[in-house]
């Protein structure tokens, strides 16, 4: 284990010197993530080991920058941080990630060396949950079907032949009590809805505290008017919503996916959507994007968006703000507010 932490796993004492940090991400993302006031806060608590943003971590310049770094500030596009990189960073005590998942570039070796890890996944969960709430309302209101009517007929709306319309009294099924799933449950309190949640790591009492009822996934599928997917992408969750479970959904149910495309069996869902039995709002697909000849592009009961639920535009400022707040905590000797632990990697997004 690395030295330099107290028993709580934080930087010790009342620090008087600035943190030494290196930054590794896509260069263009630095100004997008960090507004000038937030960058000013960063420089108040940290000195850069190099003025350059490190796009690679396997060069002589990168090794020189890492040699004195206590913290590595990462983001989209950060290369893999493996044992070879860590061997060139003997003073590294923490990795603060200014984006969502860390699974794409961190492995067990980081946690095995006692390095703290923080992620801005909580900040990224905010716009995804907001998008999901909109998708629940739009899906239940059959907005894609009405928009198709208007686009093709240039006429006023017709409810003839449409499934049940509206959110009043719907049953909302949340697949995965992740950060985003929990936020969606919270936002769904604004709807007149019964909320079910299926998550193998969630107890009935924890679900009740969230305002939901814990059920198994098959029961959720049978009972839900709207199903929203918030599970992580793991080997165990591939095609979690397969043909059998999709067939359990009642006629007219809406499937929402803002998580990962592979969690839903695309072929099975396509068959249900082509038949018109189900509706869908899909921000992610498998593959992504779909092939040009996919029927999902043109179906009236499908709303497709190109992976826009996560932070975009001014929403990414939340991520930079959260990352700098974590640096401030480290500089003050306080524990991280958004830590990621090694034993969580197998079941987090």
UniProtKB/TrEMBL annotation:
Pfam families linked: 2-Hacid_dh, 2-Hacid_dh_C
Family as reported in the entry's similarity comment: Belongs to the D-isomer specific 2-hydroxyacid dehydrogenase family.
Annotated ranges, domain D-isomer specific 2-hydroxyacid dehydrogenase catalytic: 37-340
Oxidoreductase listed as a keyword: yes
Location of the D-isomer specific 2-hydroxyacid dehydrogenase NAD-binding domain: 135-309
InterPro entries found in the cross-reference section: D-isomer_2-hydroxyacid_DH (IPR050223), D-isomer_2_OHA_DH_cat_dom (IPR006139), D-isomer_DH_CS (IPR029753), D-isomer_DH_NAD-bd (IPR006140), NAD(P)-bd_dom_sf (IPR036291)
GO MF, one annotated term: hydroxypyruvate reductase [NAD(P)H] activity
Keywords: NAD, Oxidoreductase
GO cellular component assignments: cytosol
Domain of life: Bacteria
Protein name listed in UniProt: Dehydrogenase
């Amino acid at each position: 284990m690395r030295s330099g932490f107290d028993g709580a796993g934080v930087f010790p004492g009342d620090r008087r010197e600035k943190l030494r940090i290196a930054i590794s991400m896509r260069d263009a993302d630095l100004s997008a993530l960090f507004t000038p006031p937030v960058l000013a806060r960063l420089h108040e608590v940290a000195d850069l080991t190099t003025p350059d943003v490190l796009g690679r971590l396997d060069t002589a310049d990168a090794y020189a920058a890492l040699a004195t770094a206590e913290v590595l500030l990462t983001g989209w596009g950060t290369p893999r941080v493996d044992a070879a990189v860590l061997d060139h960073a003997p003073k590294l005590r923490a990795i603060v990630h200014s984006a969502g998942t860390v699974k794409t570039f961190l492995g067990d070796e980081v946690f095995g060396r006692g390095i703290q890890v923080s992620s801005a996944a909580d900040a990224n969960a905010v716009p995804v949950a907001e998008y999901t709430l909109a998708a629940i309302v739009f899906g239940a209101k059959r907005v894609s079907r009405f928009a198709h009517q208007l686009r093709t007929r240039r006429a006023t709306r017709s409810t003839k032949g449409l499934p049940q319309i509206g959110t009043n009294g719907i049953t909302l099924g949340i697949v995965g009590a992740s950060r985003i799933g929990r936020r969606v449950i919270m936002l769904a309190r604004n709807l007149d809805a019964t909320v079910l949640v299926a998550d193998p790591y969630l107890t009935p009492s924890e679900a009740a505290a969230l305002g939901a009822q814990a059920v198994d996934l098959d029961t959720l599928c049978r009972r839900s008017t709207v199903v929203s997917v918030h599970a992580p992408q793991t080997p165990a969750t591939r095609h979690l919503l397969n043909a059998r479970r999709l067939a359990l959904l009642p006629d007219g149910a809406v499937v929402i996916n803002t998580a990962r495309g592979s969690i839903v069996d695309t072929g099975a869902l396509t068959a249900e959507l082509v038949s018109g039995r189900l509706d869908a709002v899909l921000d992610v697909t498998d593959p992504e994007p779909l092939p040009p000849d996919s029927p999902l592009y043109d179906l009236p009961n499908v709303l497709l968006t190109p992976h826009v639920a996560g932070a975009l535009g001014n929403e990414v400022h939340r991520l930079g703000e959260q990352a700098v707040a974590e640096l401030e905590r480290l500089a003050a000797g306080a524990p991280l507010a958004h830590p990621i632990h090694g034993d969580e990697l197998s079941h987090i997004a």
